[in-house]
Design goal:
- There is one protein chain.
- The chain has six helices and seven strands; from the N terminus they run ααααββββαβαββ.
- By secondary structure, the chain is α+β, with helices and mostly antiparallel strands.
- The chain has two domains: about 80 residues, no CATH class; about 110 residues, Roll (Chitinase A, domain 3).
- Helix 1 packs across helix 3.
Length: about 240
């Protein structure tokens, strides 16, 4: 269902941009031109945001417009209704494979170069890290512990942070085992009071799924983390 919604949004956006040519399709005397223009712009922004987050970024615009116009104008398409889903699903799978291959190549190249830098180390899982401050070696968090941290995270190659406790003005607190694998593994490498930089492969992050426009599919993540406090896990006593 989500896939078809994305396709529809893209098609509608293209029709607005390519077919209308700036002309009003209909005008009501009760609605002012200014109000119509303002709403039209807001709709355009909303559509653009949805398209940006859809993950479908490779389409033949001419064919897309052709198919949309044929149906919206009461004509017949060149394909049968039962074939539509099969064609879109097959293409989406191919598109994801292509994106995955591209991401793998770029990530592999980056990590090969990054691990040669001074202070950068790599774990068996592929996580790369640099310990800025080791912290208290006797107070390292374990899976069931809770940590209080300050952190900021960016997608490799992006300028804007997608998340930052510093920006929110207060530290975050959560169980070690309830975050992405790369982050969970990395925070256990330092002790309370320590600081670490993490380079997380997409397979240890959010994988092949797009989380948001700021976190697209196959995102390699870079985190700066400051471990403020380790709160040891305490098993609750069973009620009698």
């Amino acid at each position: 269902m989500k896939l078809f919604k994305s396709i529809f949004v893209i098609a509608l956006s293209v029709i607005i941009l390519a077919s209308c040519g700036g002309q009003n399709t209909k005008k009501y005397k009760e609605i002012s031109q200014q109000q119509m223009d303002s709403a039209s712009y807001a709709i355009g922004v909303s559509l653009a945001q949805m398209v940006k987050g859809s993950g479908i970024d490779a389409v033949n615009i001419d064919k897309l417009v052709k198919g949309f116009k044929e149906i919206i104008n009461g004509g017949e398409s060149d394909i049968k209704d039962e074939e539509i889903g099969q064609i879109i699903n097959a293409y989406t799978m191919k598109l994801n494979e292509a994106k995955g291959a591209e991401a793998d190549a770029a990530e592999k190249k980056f990590f090969a170069e990054n691990k040669t830098k001074e202070g950068v180390q790599e774990t068996e899982s592929g996580l790369q890290y640099q310990i800025i401050e080791a912290g208290n070696e006797e107070l390292k968090p374990q899976d069931q512990d809770t940590v209080e941290v300050h952190y900021k995270g960016v997608v490799l190659g992006a300028e804007k942070e997608f998340d930052s406790s510093y920006e929110r003005g207060e530290p975050a607190k959560f169980p070690v085992e309830r975050v992405i694998k790369g982050w969970s593994e990395g925070i256990k490498l330092i002790g309370e009071g320590g600081k670490i930089k993490l380079w997380i492969p997409y397979e240890l992050g959010y994988g092949s799924s797009a989380v948001s426009p700021e976190l697209p599919a196959y995102s390699t993540l870079v985190f700066d983390v400051e471990l403020l406090k380790v709160i040891p896990f305490v098993e609750k006593e069973e009620k009698k």
